[in-house]
Amino acid sequence: MAAYALPVPPMTAVGKTLSIAIFGAGSIGVFVGGALIAGGADVVLIGRARVGERIARHGLAVSDMDGRRFQLPAERVHYSEDAAAVTGAGLVLVTVKSADTEAAAQALAAHAAPDALVISLQNGIGNAEVLRRALPGRQVLAGMVPFNVVQTEDGRFHRGTEGSLMVEASPALSPWLGWFEAAGLPLLQRADFASVQWGKLLLNLNNAVNALSGLPLKTQLSQRDYRRCLALLMDEALGVLRAAGIEPAQVAKVAPSRLPRLLRLPDWLYKRLASASLRIDPEARSSMWEDLQAGRHTEVDYLNGAVVSLAQSVGLDAVGNRRIADLVHAAERGESAAMTGTDLLAALRR
């Protein structure tokens, strides 16, 4: 790791160092927290015992697809299993799975400082609203993480795809922007955040395809039948969004309306056209694949399931998204093995 000068920690008006709590130290939470620590921030990671024990034994290694790597010794990483560790943090980044948002909100209501800024960096739609309902009078912002993070065999938390962190625009972010710049994770503020969330969810529809393929993302997306599965899911979702009067924002280098057509191209043409706009590290996998490997429940009901729910609200049926959610639930129960692109496409069309 190359040596560099750490920035001077930002101060509040009364001269106290601003601190950050990562509530939900999974792959995304640990990566973001590790990058912030490497940039000089005062951070506490709050999560489950298995991650804390791993960091205590080996320290924390963070890397990305551009070749940056930070090895943090265990003594530089403040890790806790106790939700009360959030007390005193001026900024709380919520990175728990969507199914755990309600429990996280209750913990924050009990322990977070009344003036703490809370940002939801979670997949899916509506997590910020869950937090707001449980935290009345506190400032809660929606956020979005566009990239994938995988835990590698050698213990690194590795970022394998590109994209900038996005967050609901607010003056309250001002004291924190320098931290994220120093961490190499600049915050892109957006006023149209509901559209941003739906734009991100369209990309997240691939999580289920990737999880059922059992392949790294780059390998999966190099095979046309898997891409045709994703195109089917996206086309269906775009139709539902049109019916609901929602315009998804462009959060990748390709506009949402163009993605299904690009995905359906023959392999040689897709590789030629997409290579300049869709950078993916060979190590990258979806978080849903990781959840299946670890025997955990996935977020499929908050991703593909969100399309199904929105479709029902406007009198439609998102058949493909409903079917792939059922397949992921079967995989959660151990009832299915990895599927080829041909078999998955047939199942979604059946």
Topology:
Layout: E1 19-23, H1 27-38, E2 42-46, H2 49-58, E3 60-64, E4 69-72, E5 78-80, E6 91-94, H3 101-111, E7 117-121, H4 127-134, E8 140-144, E9 149-151, E10 156-159, E11 165-168, H5 177-182, E12 187-190, H6 193-204, H7 206-213, H8 217-221, H9 224-244, H10 259-263, H11 267-274, H12 287-293, H13 304-313, H14 319-332, H15 341-349
Parallel strand pairs: 1-2, 1-6, 2-5, 3-10, 6-7, 7-8, 11-12
Antiparallel strand pairs: 3-4, 8-11, 9-10
Helix pairs in contact: 3-4, 7-9, 7-12, 7-14, 9-13, 9-15, 13-14
Q: Order the strands across the largest sheet as they lie in space.
A: 5-2-1-6-7-8-11-12
N- to C-terminal distance:
51 Å
- Find the structural class using helix and strand composition: alpha/beta
Q: How many structural units, i.e. domains?
A: 2
Helix content: 40-55%
Number of strands: 12
Unreliable segments (pLDDT under 50, ≥5 consecutive)? Answer: 1-17
Task: Please provide the ordered H/E string of secondary-structure elements.
Answer: EHEHEEEEHEHEEEEHEHHHHHHHHHH
What value does the average pLDDT take?
92
How many whole angstroms does the radius of gyration measure?
20 Å
Largest sheet: 8 strands, mixed
What global shape is seen? globular
CATH fold naming of the largest domain: Rossmann fold
Q: Provide the CATH superfamily of the largest domain.
A: NAD(P)-binding Rossmann-like Domain
CATH architecture label of the largest domain: 3-Layer(aba) Sandwich
CATH class of the largest domain: Alpha Beta
Strand content bin: 5-15%
- The quaternary structure here is single chain
Tally of helical runs: 15
